[in-house]
Design brief:
By secondary structure, the chain is an alpha/beta fold. The chain is built from twelve helices and twelve strands. Helix content is 41%, strand content 17%. The termini are far apart. The relative contact order is 0.12. It holds the Pfam family LacI.
């Protein structure tokens, strides 16, 4: 049985075919977890057979939900983030949610107004690598929030194993004979930068290596190029960069100066963006499961929104949803060193 051409299918049609009430159809389509699985399956099957598609506006009036997720990120021009956003969008679509996106241009002062502007249009937020202060973000958490690439108590979070990634990179350089290395740091407000630096310090200390820290720089190719002369002037044989863009900027400037990579200086990036494998020499880097970060972030957020009494934080900064409702959830995504052509043995 299918709907007649040119005739709009209604909730009552779906209810009649499924053998349930119209209100059960509304609940099954708008909030499936509130009905018995067998009822949900019958309703969804009937809706498919009839070609029925719920009206999002009408559904939001019934449920008080928008079926939208807000995503706030610092820079869409950074190749790391589009991959994460694509995974977020794919996972959200599977759960019948749309994604509203805003880019803050690496400006912490833009983040809070951006969240406020989107708050009435979404049911919850995914904050990707937010730059604003913890207290500022807590103050605007009137909707459920999950944080990606940063940890802010009491929000659920999804982060990469930055320490493990740095440990792999340092062990690789140590095996190649490097004993004095540098790190070109990313933005001062970046949690990932601080976390990577902590892991790097621990790894070099454990192996008795000397670490020279340079930065902070913008997380861009230009930022890396600006730091390259300082690296070249330091007594180091290898450099680790905050991310791949910074690493590419370093390589670009070294090559312009006639400094051979990896013959004279080895270079390691972080993130494994697509272009890292395409440049010359191909970039050794620490790969992050960017798609996994996006998918897990969506799952955490939807679970948080589905929890009884789900909401943001009260003005005192405590969880309105109460403990055990997702506010303490922390997920860590593995990292993996990818060895390519930008690292080599110390020149003898």
């Amino acid at each position: 049985m299918i709907g007649e051409p040119g005739v709009a299918v209604t909730i009552k049609d779906v209810a009649r075919l499924a053998g349930v009430s119209a209100s059960s159809v509304c609940r099954a389509l708008a909030d499936p977890d509130r009905v018995r699985p067998e009822t949900r399956d019958r309703v969804q099957t009937a809706a498919r057979q009839l070609g029925y598609h719920p009206n999002r506006v009408a559904r939001s009036l019934i449920t008080g939900r928008t079926a939208n997720i807000g995503v706030v990120l610092p820079d869409l021009g950074n190749p790391f983030f589009p991959t994460v956003v694509k995974a977020i969008q794919t996972q959200a679509r599977r759960r019948d949610y749309a994604v509203l996106l805003t880019d803050t241009d690496e400006d912490p002062a833009v983040e809070v107004p951006a969240i406020r502007a989107l708050a009435m249009q979404v049911d919850g937020f995914l904050l990707c690598s937010p730059r604003a202060a913890d207290d500022e973000l807590r103050a605007v958490a009137e909707k459920p929030m999950v944080v990606l690439n940063r940890r802010i108590s009491p929000f659920p979070s999804v982060t990469a194993d930055n320490s493990g990634g740095m440990r792999q990179a340092v062990s690789h350089l140590h095996a190649l004979g490097h004993r004095t290395i540098s790190y070109v740091a990313g933005p001062r407000t970046s949690w990932s930068n601080r976390d990577r630096l902590r892991g790097l310090r621990a790894a070099t200390s454990a192996l008795g290596m000397t670490l020279i820290e340079i930065g902070n720089v913008a997380p861009t190719v230009a930022g890396g190029a600006a730091a390259a002369d300082l690296v070249a002037a330091a007594p180091v044989t290898a450099v680790l960069a905050y991310n791949d863009l910074v690493a590419l900027g370093l390589v670009q400037r070294f090559q312009a100066r006639g400094i051979a990579v990896p013959g004279q200086l080895s270079v390691v990036g972080f993130d494994d963006i697509l272009v890292a494998a395409l440049v010359g020499p191909p970039l050794t880097t620490v790969a992050i499961g960017k798609e996994q970060i996006g998918r897990v972030g969506v799952d955490l957020l939807l679970a948080l929104m589905a929890a009884p009494g789900a909401a943001g934080l009260d003005r005192a900064g405590s969880e309105r949803a109460g403990p055990g409702r997702g506010g303490r959830a922390r997920r860590v995504v593995p990292t993996q060193l990818i060895v390519r052509g930008s690292t080599g043995p110390v020149a003898r």
